[in-house]
Write a structure and sequence with these properties.
The structure is a single chain. This protein is α+β, with helices and mostly antiparallel strands. It has helices spanning about 15-20, 35, 85-100, 105-115, 115-135; strands spanning about 5, 10-15, 40-45, 60, 65-70, 70-75, 75-80. Helix content is about 45%, strand content about 20%. The chain folds into 2 domains: about 5-80, no CATH class; about 85-135. It contains 5 helices and 7 strands; from the N terminus they run ββααβββββααα. Helix 4 crosses helix 5 (about 115-135). The strands form 2 sheets. Strands 2-1-3-6-5 form a 5-stranded mixed β-sheet. The N and C termini lie far apart (about 75 Å).
Length: about 140
């Protein structure tokens, strides 16, 4: 569980080892219960569920915990992507599609033709027409 130190209302990352170093003459109870840590300005941060986002248009990061009554609660920052980031993601998607096509083997193509006979026939007809046009047979 994440630990913070309350520095006049501003949470700062903190650890048990830092706590022990800051208070070397204090014996802490096993398990470091919140009731004891809180006396020294140290608080556990209550986890919250990570929100679901659309990663094509947003990013998410852990924000600064906020104090709600007597508890410190984890916060998530959802940020929309900039236009440049959106363009880069769109280009990556297109690149990934092309890379997948490059990985297709002859066997994959034959399996596709067998599974899509009508589409394959149309494709073959178009190829034949293109060859005929190129050779000026038509």
């Amino acid at each position: 569980m994440k630990l913070i130190k309350d520095n006049n209302g501003v949470p700062e990352p903190y650890s048990i080892s830092q706590l022990k170093a800051d208070y070397p003459n204090v014996s802490f109870r096993r398990g470091y219960p919140a009731s004891q840590l809180n006396q020294f300005g140290a608080y556990y941060v209550t986890d919250t569920a990570r929100p679901v986002i659309d990663s094509m248009i947003e990013t998410i990061s852990e924000g600064t915990p906020v104090k709600v009554v007597d508890d410190w609660v984890q916060v998530w920052d959802v940020t929309p992507l900039s236009q440049a980031e959106l363009d880069a993601r769109a280009n990556q998607v297109e690149y990934d599609k092309l890379a997948e096509l490059d990985r297709l083997s002859i066997r994959d193509i034959r399996e596709w033709i067998a599974a899509q006979p009508t589409a394959a026939k149309t494709l073959k007809d178009r190829e034949a027409l293109a060859v005929a046009a190129r050779d000026r047979i038509v």
